[in-house]
Amino acid sequence: MSTATTKGQLNEALTQASRIVIKIGSALLVDATGELRTDWLGKLARDIMQLRAEGKEIVTVSSGAVALGAPLLPEGTSKRRLQESQAAAAVGQVRLAHAWQELFAAHDTVVAQILLTLEDTETRRRYLNARDTIDTLLTMGAVPVINENDTVATQEIRYGDNDRLAARVAQMISADGLVILSDVDGLYTDNPELNADAQFIDLVEDITPEIEAMAGEPLRMGVGSGGMITKVTAAQIAVASGCHVLLINGTHDSPITRFRETGRGTLFAAQETDTSQHKQWLAGTLMPAGTLVVDEGAEQALSKGKSLLAAGVTAVEGDFQRGDTVAITNQQNKELALGLAAYPSQEARLIMGHNSRELETILGYRGRGELVHRDNMVLR
Prior knowledge:
- By secondary structure, the chain is α/β, with parallel strands linked by helices.
- The chain has helices spanning about 5-15, 25-30, 40-55, 65-70, 80-105, 120, 125-140, 160-170, 210-215, 230-240, 255-260, 275-285, 295-305, 345-350, 360-365, and strands spanning about 20-25, 55-60, 110-115, 145-150, 175-180, 185-190, 200, 205, 220, 225, 245-250, 265-270, 290-295, 310, 315-320, 325-330, 335-340, 370, 375-380.
- Helices cover about 40% and strands about 20% of the residues.
- The strands form five sheets. An eight-stranded mixed β-sheet has the order 3-4-2-1-5-11-12-8, with helices on both faces.
């Protein structure tokens, strides 16, 4: 953690990035009456075109569909049930996509809409398909505009905030820069509106429990959702895949140009990593399909880079299939690792606690000796 980073150091993170994801929240895009802030978005579009003129590839993650659609439906912006929010998203997404299309048409640039759900990044095959589509669009010179598919996402299976979605997209496409536009200048040691002594932090080199505590609790108010904690969580995902994260104030006109002039913001520095893309995807999992609880012996074996054998598993929680991502915890509920299950949950329950030599007799066929192989596992 640092409070003395120079303006040049923060600017360098943006200048040197070649593939950048820019996340825009609902509170920046939509005003209190539910109207799109077209002038602001137009100036952001000019910022994006300037980055493209410098040879950078740009992907945007744009919120705002529910906030734009709600005023056009009965009940307006009052509290909505899930189905009503989904309906609002369906209406608002048309307006949002049209606005992006019109603004970039003025720059002779094509935009492409991509709607993702949590399962699109948690399921490996769908993750790779989404990555290939985005890569192809960038190769063709388009600007992908990504949002969560709120029309089909459920309360149980959704991101709930586009900060984490943006981080997963950055990880997915091997971006080296993620810019999160917020309504504050960056990260403070405490809420500056409540604590006049709160100090601004311009560089975070390691996201420690202390940093997480500074972010506070998630917020759900107005047209936005999340809060600083979701931005820190997003930064954890992105920096682990070698992507710098810049948190800057987006409330001003031309926010990226303004950042370049002032250097005001918080940089979460990328971690150097030689982790494969496969394991980076695993490490970014937001919703494991189940949990394997292990004994002390298995915990020690995992810490030495060993695979997880059925003999060391004491409990199987959840309902998952072979190939699903599962969390591995100790008996104190501390998460030790994430990995791909070699067996579905029903069979995992049958073989847990048993020696590998017994598995064929129990299952009636000769399967893998490991419940989770080390090649399909990342330690926490």
